[in-house]
Write a structure and sequence with these properties.
Length: about 210
């Protein structure tokens, strides 16, 4: 019953009764443990499952042919990853998923579940739509950020969003400086230089991952 209680706490399975959750367990892997920096999905891997992150953090990133990596997002459990790839019937995953710290993951064979004609399918799909709607808002924000013309504008936009989400001008971000540079699609030295300028000008204060908007 412990497994059922874990599933009940996941947004994906909200509203399902115990019998429906027991049925869904047939399409779930056992809990898999990944060490920090261990690859969960690599770009180009055939994909039949999407991931349910129970604990820990994972990084989702893309890399161009020149080896330049862009960090799309850092997810903290509980969360889903690679679900949009399966829903679009893409056969190979176009991004990499790497454990940012020791993490626990369940893989969900969504294709087999969808083909099974399960009575819970409508509920799960409704929950998926809500989850994807939230992620679409995040990606819209990310596109707005990347379209900004300067390093300073990107930093201030990002920090303003973080302060708004956390309802505080004092907060801790998920990224270290290298990861933040990847997320903002900036050179690390340019990012560090602009952060130092903002600090000297009295607009922000920061120490590692902790920021304060002044």
């Amino acid at each position: 019953m412990k497994d059922i209680e874990i599933l009940k706490n996941l947004t994906l399975f909200k509203g399902l009764d115990d019998n429906e959750l027991i049925e869904i367990k047939k399409f779930l892997s056992s809990v898999k443990t990944y060490d920090a920096k261990e690859i969960i999905f690599n770009t180009g891997d055939p994909i039949n499952y999407f991931g349910i992150l129970l604990k820990g953090q994972v990084d989702l990133s893309i890399e161009d042919v020149f080896g330049n990596k862009t960090l799309l997002s850092k997810l903290t459990g509980p969360a889903l990853f690679a679900e949009s790839v399966l829903i679009k019937d893409i056969e190979e995953i176009p991004l990499s998923v790497v454990a940012a710290e020791d993490s626990e993951v369940i893989l969900f064979d969504y294709k087999a579940y969808k083909s099974s004609g399960s009575s819970s399918l409508v509920k799960v799909q409704d929950n998926l739509i809500k989850i994807l709607a939230g992620k679409n808002l995040f990606m819209r924000d990310k596109l707005n950020l990347l379209s900004l013309p300067s390093t300073r504008a990107k930093i201030l936009y990002f920090l303003s969003n973080e302060a708004r989400k956390r309802k505080s001008k004092y907060f801790e971000i998920d990224f270290n400086i290298s990861e933040l540079a990847q997320f903002l699609n900036l050179n690390r030295s340019s990012l560090s230089r602009e952060l130092s300028k903002l600090k000297k000008e009295g607009l922000i204060d920061y120490d590692n991952k902790t920021f304060r908007i002044l």
